[in-house]
Fold each of these.
Amino acid sequence: MRMRPTAEGGGMATKKSEKRQRNKTVHIRLTDAEHAALLAAADNAGLTLGAYMRAAALGSPGPRAARKPPVVREELVRILSQLGKIGSNVNQIARAVNSGDDPNGLSDDIKAAVVALAEIHAAAAHALGWKPGMDA
């Protein structure tokens, strides 16, 4: 544990984050199926694997357990696929508008739709943990 001088100048004080830091590890052996089941259960509970294991063993995930919203991966992938198809249709319409065929002045609506599609795509990709540029 590192110590730092106190403002008063005399003794040494420990940082709060160092006092609360978990510093012990427990190692267990699991089959691939057991590991997958634990990861799925933790994800369904909205917890990290470590917080889920603490909750199972100790009855509480801990005071600062990382809670995360459960993500239905397959549904997000399906949504991203549909967004790609919608984006293709919007691009075809935009191409027609840009060539001079702009029925009812839709060009501003199309631009807004393209921006909205990009924002939805970015949010779903972020929820999946994808890096920019990755696709389904």
Amino acid sequence: MSYPVLRALDLFFVVFHTAFVVFILAGWLSRFTRRAHRYAVVATAFSWFGLGLFTTIGYCPLTDWHWRVLRELGETGLPRSYIQYLVIRLIGLEVDAMTVDIVVAAGFALAAILAFGLWFVEHRARRDRRPRSPEQRRRRREPQKSGERRQFPNASGM
């Protein structure tokens, strides 16, 4: 591949992979992104622990592809962790690989717990709002007859 294409791919991977990492860490915050966030967490876990069984635990195809591009550009001595690479490239700090791995694992675990914990709470709340007894379900499904007013219990429950 030509040098400009490789540089464009390098920029793409830095932007996309970094955005994906931020989404994994913060996607649970918005109600609108929670479903996509859960899918991203599952895909990441599958990559790290499923595909990782055949390569190394923590395997990420985005990192693998980015490293191929960087090697074509002549980069050597790339770290094992993409986050460690980002810290070096964007901030200029040399951080111990074990420290980075611990922080990444803790951040991912926290994001996964929050994502699925919120899903459980929201799912339970939706379930609790549904009518439970057959009589309640029947009343909810029956169309209202014209001219008939639906009766609601008053505030005292009578």
Amino acid sequence: MNKKLSEPNEDYLERICELLDKKSYARVTDIAEELKVKPASVTAMLQKLEVDGYLVREIYRGFSLTKKGVAAGKKIQKRHQVLYRFLNFLKIDPEVIADDVDGLEHHLSDETVKKLETFLEKEVNAY
């Protein structure tokens, strides 16, 4: 049984996926900078995520995500994108959207994300 990831775990996995997509690597300093936390906090979280099976350390290369880590990270990214698109559809100010998405994305069920995605597909195609 997979336990639900905590909000910080989700934030770390989302940022790691973004960095890996952009640069093909994610260093502790990169993650710390992105999340505005201390490198020691990043190291502690990476150790936890490793124990939980989301990433593995690679000597001289830092770390990489496991299949489980990639799946979780991509799911979080998708939730973020769908929520962003929905709030943008409602013509909410982009700065407000950024704050709202970061707060709301952790609380949406898979069912809600799917319904929002379906709604957006229908509405965007209607215009």
